[in-house]
Fold this sequence. Notes:
With 313 residues, this protein is mainly alpha-helical. The protein has helices spanning 31-38, 42-59, 102-138, 140-155, 158-169, 173-183, 185-199, 203-210, 215-223, 228-251, 263-270, 279-306, 308-312, and strands at 2-5, 8-14, 17-18. It has a three-stranded antiparallel β-sheet, covered by helices on one side.
Amino acid sequence: MEGRSNGHTLGKKVSGTLTAPARIPAPSWRLPRVIQMLFGNPLTIFGTLILLLVIVAAAWPVSLLPHDPYVADIMLRFIPPVWETGGSPEYLLGTDALGRDNLSMIIHGARYSLLIISLAALLSLVIGVTAGLLAGHHRGWIDEVLMRLVDIQLSFPLLVLIIAVVAVLGPSFRNIVIVLGIAGWAPYARIVRGVVLSLREKEFIEAARAMGAGNLRIIARHLLPNTVTAIVIFTTFELARLLLLESALAFLGLGVQPPTPSWGAMIADGRQYLFEAWWASALPGLAILATVLAFNLLGDGLRDVLDPLSREQ
């Protein structure tokens, strides 16, 4: 007699003993099917195209930019965008208070923003997923300690905590990544723990235990693959939140330091000239808005495709 879970063999009982190896249930999605369903949603396509454009901008070599984003010329300050009176085709999006080309700075600034939030999200994911797997699988005192740490971290106002820590450590690329990464692990831990709690009593987990699988094997081969859907969906939305936090730090002067271009710093530099040179602050703000919107649209599309419950609603 074969036990089954989602159509997959759990183990074969021979003379009261399980002899066939337990196998993890197949994921509820496949990459080609996911891509096909994603590209059936116009909003998801729009968000994906924006993200691809931002990624291309982040990878664009400095030598191929219209102008050097690090070179200032005060004689060229506040040239309007090309569609404004007095604009120049040489500076399509105008210049800032120091005469730097806005287009070149926005393109180059995408590199640091995407790199910071990607590394921070990766750090949060590793810490949070590990904590969530341990808490959900082992329960007991491990669960209590880890979840109390999660509650303590989530009780602090996140932006205030990040600003305080960065101010103490000093603003640098490394410190921003570390602070944002450590500050973001708690939601991952809580989400993964919830998924693991719903899986740990399933038949295929029981079969794995009966076959003598250790805790590490159960976590790595059976629990972790079944949390991928929740992790992918949450990470997409988390990247949007991290971009806003990174921009806020840069706006306050706690992000990557000048002369390195940063979208948040560009907004801060141009905010006192809004009435005479709106483009210096508004255009990098639009870049942040478009990128955050793109992450959210992609996240909505992934949730609709990967989450069966959301498709039924």
